[in-house]
Amino acid sequence: MQFRFEIIHKSKKSRARVGRIHTPHGVIDTPNFVAVGTNGTLKALDNRMVDSIGLQLMFCNTYHLLLQPGPDVIRRAGGLHRFINRQMPIITDSGGFQVFSLAYGSVADELKSRGAKKHGGHVLKISEEGVHFRSYRDGSKVLLTPETSIQTQKALGADIIIPLDELPPYHIGSEALRRSLDRTHRWEIRSLQEHLQNRQNQAMYAVIHGGVDPLLRNLSCDTLSQHPFDGFAIGGSLGKTKAEMIAMLTALMPRLPEERPNHLLGIGDLESLRQCIPLGIDTLDSSYPTRAARHGLLLTHEGGIKVGRSEHANHFAPIERECTCWTCQHYTLAYLHHLYKAAELTFFTLATVHNLHFMVETMRTIREEILRE
Amino acid sequence: MQFRFEIIHKSKKSRARVGRIHTPHGVIDTPNFVAVGTNGTLKALDNRMVDSIGLQLMFCNTYHLLLQPGPDVIRRAGGLHRFINRQMPIITDSGGFQVFSLAYGSVADELKSRGAKKHGGHVLKISEEGVHFRSYRDGSKVLLTPETSIQTQKALGADIIIPLDELPPYHIGSEALRRSLDRTHRWEIRSLQEHLQNRQNQAMYAVIHGGVDPLLRNLSCDTLSQHPFDGFAIGGSLGKTKAEMIAMLTALMPRLPEERPNHLLGIGDLESLRQCIPLGIDTLDSSYPTRAARHGLLLTHEGGIKVGRSEHANHFAPIERECTCWTCQHYTLAYLHHLYKAAELTFFTLATVHNLHFMVETMRTIREEILRE
After folding, report:
1. A371 — contact with chain B (CB < 8 Å)?
2. Domain boundaries in chain A?
3. Among residues B233, B157, B243, which one has the least CA distance to residue B202?
4. Could you give the CA distance from residue A316 to residue A334 in angstroms, rounded to a whole number?
5. Among A49, A41, A8, which Cα is nearest to A27's?
6. pLDDT tens digits for A291-320?
7. I want to staple A342 with a disulfide (CB 3.0 to 4.6 A). Which of A239, A361, A362, B39 is the partner?
8. Chain A closest CA to B175's CA: distance in Å?
9. Residue of B313, B295, B267 lying closest to B351 (CA atoms)
10. Alpha helices, DSSP H only, in chain A?
11. pLDDT at B118 over 50
12. Omega before residue B71 within 30° of 0, cis
């Protein structure tokens, strides 16, 4: 099966659309939520369970897999799908985001002045060639270039791959941002060239940069859409507030080639999701629902439930009566409360199952809503 | 279904026997391994998975459940089976073991001179009435007596319950051990009287004490077997070496009433198991296989595999080719190695599934071996 994007319906009320991304490992219905399985597993879930929940696209991190177990092991296993036993589609990133996060810290870190270089010592050198950094696992020096990122992603063999980009810090002068953008474009085009030498039935999404500067976002969009990328990811700094992100997307989205799918990187809380999809976002990934689960926040149609609150100790019914997830079919909120209070590992699994199922069902509902618009 | 023990076959080579314990929640084939689910869950597994592995008896700890969520919550839930959604049999202990462990530390602690009173401050007073201790959860004072232990176990509603005993330290003079034994017997008989006021279709196993003194073990056996306990647990100090335990059991086992089932408390490593069953042990519990899993030790017919060893990084086959567990049916040792190295929660689940399945299958094999003897 070749990669192909099919638009089924366009909303008459907004730019939202319902579509299908066809990949070698099956269909991704859009709009859809993409869960993050950094190391080739969603935390606390096994991949058969993830399949049974119906998560159609899983996001794995090249940075982590590059360092452990390394591309050679995964290549020998027959690729990431076989290594982790996942039958459905996978997307991998370039590794750049994590490397630059090490250098600059996350946007949140920066805004909270938690230090611009959280693990700064680990990035050794950034040049036109790429980034030298030190492995957090064994201290060895690693060179990440557009070419090595793509070679690693070829070993992994995900259905959708991402070119190497430079992630500039949020607080950056406009000149420096412009220079970073130009380098990102050069890196992305080198990534594409490397990819096109051996497509391997993978699709590549360009990453649109430009921070919150509308002109730079437009420039990035126009530059990258001239190249045969299969889709577009929206990356870089998305602003320090939801409003900034929405303003940026409102300006950018109409400019993206409509017939190619897009992906919003690293956003997946319910409020953002409800605001971004009407702007035309097809997929978006976040570790929020699974991380929230591990911290005792259960997602429901009436908002988040803090499982540790004592009012739940005697709630001998599922989290939500109508929920069809494994957890709600078999266990009560009172039992989940108990497992959480007792700090049992089983809690992580059962809570993650529920939150992931909630996201899958929420996206199904959103698609149905758009189909009626 | 009334509690009933049925002996199906006796070995001609040893005292080993194959039997069936009938309980209100189904049959326990003996000899069998009993896994420990302290807080009403086996660590990292959900109870439907535990059922599907075929674990016939699960051991829950009254001490922990008394403090969290407390007997009232479990009574309101309709008992422990309903609260944790387990359909198969459960055994609970009296809570005494944990309380006295707090006072004296474990035998291992004591032998390693890690201090006689690990959390000594938590036990406030031991008297003929029972034990006052302080909850590790909220600092409240709790009184555990034969009567309150049984009342708690009535709220939990396990199929098999245990009377309150005193756990003397391993290093104790013979006079003090004798006094402790007498008190234990008085407590156990008070527990039995409390139980018989409202059987609630539960069975009660007496706990044989006496440390490694054969005369005291015999005395304990003879004293307790005059009372209508449904079976016998072998508790107290089992010695500081396997040899001491085996010597004690070799002397004790022929003295136990043959027609009643017995249970060896807190022993379940494979070597002990292979040595104890020929002495006539019917069931034995241990957290060893599940704890070993979490520490990266996978049980196989060729001995334990340390999953973290680099030689497993490229082993693209199950832990054991013939193994029919969920983990071996779906994942390779190489993937488990990776999950372990990446410190993923999913590892705990997959490793525990395998080790528990291994124990269930090992016990099945042992029963088949005895049937041929």
Report:
1. no
2. 4-92+147-286, 297-352
3. B157
4. 5
5. A8
6. 999 999 999 999 999 999 999 999 999 999
7. B39
8. 40
9. B295
10. 47-53, 62-67, 71-77, 80-84, 96-104, 107-111, 146-156, 174-196, 214-225, 242-252, 270-276, 288-294, 326-330, 333-341, 345-371
11. no
12. no
Q: Which residues of B are catalytic?
A: 93, 285
Residues near B314 by beta carbon (within 8 Å), at least 6 away in sequence: A73, A76, B334
Task: Tell me which residue in B69, B314, B349 faces A73 most closely, judged by beta carbons.
Answer: B314
Q: For this structure, is A269 an active site residue?
A: no
Residue A103 has a pLDDT of: 66
Query: Taking the model in full, what pTM does it have?
Result: 0.95
Token pair in block for residue A351: 């809570």
CB-CB neighbors (< 8 A) of B45 in chain A: 346
Nearest CB partner across the interface for A346, out of B41, B314, B337: B41
The amino acid present at B43, given as its one-letter code, is: K
Q: Model confidence over B341-371: pLDDT tens digits?
A: 999 999 999 999 999 999 999 999 999 999 9
B140–chain A nearest CA distance, Å: 17
Mutation for B interface: A312, A338, A341, A350, most B CBs within 10 A: A338
Q: How far apart are CA A150 and CA A71, in angstroms?
A: 11
Using CB atoms within 10 Å of the CB of residue B241, give its burial: 0 to 12 exposed, 13 to 18 middle, 19+ buried: exposed
- Interface contact flag, B69 A313, Cβ < 8 Å: yes
Per-residue pLDDT at A30: 98
CB A21 within 8 A of CB A30: yes
Q: Which residues of B touch A354 (CB under 8 A)?
A: none
Domain B4-92+147-286 CATH class label = alpha beta
> Mean pLDDT across the stretch B241-263?
96
Q: Between A173 and A279, where is the model more confident? A: A279
Q: For residue A169, what are the contacts with CB-CB under 8 A and spacing of at least 6?
A: A104, A110, A116, A237
